[in-house]
Design goal:
The complex is a heterodimer of chains A (about 350) and B (about 160).
Chain A: H1 4-9, E1 26-35, H2 48-65, E2 72-75, H3 81-89, H4 95-99, E3 105-108, E4 114-118, E5 124-131, H5 135-153, E6 157-158, E7 162-163, E8 175-182, H6 184-189, H7 192-201, E9 204-207, E10 220-225, H8 233-260, H9 262-278, H10 284-299, H11 307-316, H12 319-325, H13 332-347
Antiparallel strand pairs in A: 1-5, 1-8, 2-3, 3-4, 4-5, 6-7, 8-10, 9-10
Helix pairs in contact in A: 2-5, 3-12, 8-9, 9-10, 10-11, 11-13
Chain B: E1 15-20, E2 26-31, H1 33-36, H2 48-61, H3 75-81, H4 89-92, H5 94-105, H6 122-134, H7 138-153
Antiparallel strand pairs in B: 1-2
The chains are: A alpha+beta (about 350), B mainly alpha (about 160).
Chain lengths: ~350, ~160
């Protein structure tokens, strides 16, 4: 699958409810492993032809040892900006890889749950996503991919330090386990800061939707381990999952508190519905926030919109997805009008 | 959190000196064993402020900025970019990297998986072991020998 418009229309495997009662506070779980190829310099000391050769080696190994049907297999730096943006908006690759000027490669499974990035900060970064809170499942899939790929490429591993990475903050397991959380009610009740501060005190990192350095958009946050050495992958995943459960419980309590003053919550949800179904111009941030409140309304059975419609919109209103689907959305003015029409048509199908 | 040596600004300070002034003020100096070993503490020690300045100025006269023999990367570059030059930097620059790793992770030993690992550092470890023995750096030699043994035992 290399057609970005086709990709933009599809729903990634991690963006779906895990069961009928899923309240979607946890959007997805992700395990990322940083790996270095033995005997190869890191990117900062690697000349561009050698980087091209490395990307080729990584992509070839992926084709040979990963048994994925119809994978997305691209040299990312050769794509146009909109297509690269689509990849990072749907979490198929990091923002750093999507923005890179140097040679980069991506080999991703059709459902978007597994992906291998070549020549990011490290030689290889492989990631595994799962819907809901399932770091154990995401880790198992990542470990399997790691074993296959490492058997072919040969990772740089030190007997005491484990996996050797370009930055000392990733050495050891090379792992970043993260849980993506949607926390609008905590933001509304004013408790969000204290809850996230508590997670940070446990030694966890709290980031925005797009990972490191990004601003929180639509009250979506990523909770992840900070340290990668001295604890096993399973321990680190358990620590992140425990913290995520505590945050989820806090969000549920905040939603219950809002629901006890029912009118206030209903007002948030139906005000969002009113704007989204009536607006003729919708900016990205505004649409994302309001759709977040529709999701809360759906979780509490206040509105009957199917999750699939809400999930699809949540991706398709993002600027690069919108451009991939509608060529004329390249500029902000038309884009905001196209976004408003897309949202209206999706929520009020004729 | 470990205190960093005031002289080299790199290694953890393990030696803590205090000086009481005639006016009742107390000055402190925190040094690592490597920098402290360069001091002549026999007889009356010099004032601490001068002592630290002396160590710093000696450092600028003889800049000790080791480079990785595999890729030429130096710690100065690492401090600037926060990225190393190659996997072998981890072996060759380890004494300089260790404090950073210890401070960030609170540990210096990996306890997780190593599937798919090749043997990229064994040759470097063996080379460093031979050099350590030749230079009679026996403590380091013992550490490297243990590392090689553990690596051999790793399935």
């Amino acid at each position: 699958m290399t057609d970005p418009a086709r990709l933009a229309r599809s729903l990634p495997g991690w963006l779906r409810p895990v069961d009928a009662g899923d309240d979607r506070i946890v959007l997805a779980s992700r395990v990322r492993l940083a790996r270095s190829v033995a005997g190869t310099r890191f990117r900062r000391t690697l000349a561009r032809p050698e980087q091209t050769e490395l990307v080729g080696r990584v992509l070839t190994a992926c084709r040979e040892v990963l048994p994925w049907d119809d994978p997305l297999h691209v040299q990312v730096h050769r794509l146009g900006p909109a297509n690269r943006g689509v990849l990072s908006e749907r979490q198929l690759c990091s923002r750093e890889l999507a923005d890179a000027k140097h040679p980069t490669g991506l080999h991703a499974r059709d459902d978007g749950l597994l992906a291998v990035m070549g020549n990011e900060e490290d030689h290889v970064r492989l990631q595994s996503l799962a819907p809901g809170l399932d770091l154990t499942g995401a880790l198992a899939a990542a470990v399997d991919t790691d074993r296959r790929l490492g058997g072919r490429l040969g990772w740089a591993v030190h007997p005491e330090l484990g996996h050797l990475t370009a930055c000392h903050t990733n050495v050891g397991t090379g792992m970043r386990a993260s849980v993506m959380l949607h926390l609008p009610a905590l933001a509304e009740t004013g408790e969000l800061k204290a809850v996230l501060h508590g997670a940070a005190k446990l030694g966890l990192a709290v980031r925005g939707r797009q990972g490191e350095g990004s601003e929180p958009g639509g009250h979506v946050y990523q909770l992840s381990n900070l340290r990668s050495l001295g604890r096993s992958e399973d321990q680190l995943c358990a620590e992140v999952a425990d913290a995520a459960r505590a945050v989820v419980e806090a969000e549920r309590l905040a939603r219950a508190a809002l629901l006890s003053a029912r009118v206030r919550l209903e007002d948030k949800v139906f005000r969002a519905w009113g704007v989204l179904t009536g607006a003729r111009i919708l900016a990205g941030d505004e649409a994302y926030d309001l759709l977040g409140w529709l999701r809360v309304g759906r979780a509490l059975d206040l509105i009957p919109v199917p999750w699939e419609v809400l999930d699809r919109l949540w991706l398709q209103i993002l600027p690069h997805h919108l451009q991939a689907l509608h060529k004329e959305a390249a500029e902000t003015g038309p884009r905001d009008r196209i976004r408003a029409r897309l949202v209206r048509d999706s929520l009020l199908p004729s | 959190m470990a205190v960093i040596c005031q002289a080299c600004q790199q290694r953890p300070a393990l030696l803590h000196l205090t000086e009481s002034g005639a006016d009742g003020t107390v000055r402190e100096a925190h040094l690592c064993p490597q920098c402290a070993s360069g001091l002549d503490l026999g007889g009356a020690p010099p004032p601490l402020a001068g002592l630290i300045t002396g160590l710093r100025s000696r450092r600028t006269v003889e800049p000790e900025e080791p480079a990785c023999p595999e890729c030429g990367f130096t710690m100065a570059q690492y401090r600037e970019l926060n990225l190393l030059g190659c996997p072998a930097c981890w072996i060759h620059l380890w004494p300089r990297i260790e404090p950073l790793v210890r401070r960030f992770h609170g540990a210096v030993r990996h306890t997780g998986r190593t599937a798919g690992g090749a043997d990229p550092v064994r040759a470097a470890l063996e080379r460093d072991l031979a050099a350590a023995v030749a230079d009679e750096r026996f403590e380091e030699a013992a550490r490297l020998r243990d590392a090689l043994r553990r690596q051999a035992e790793t399935p």
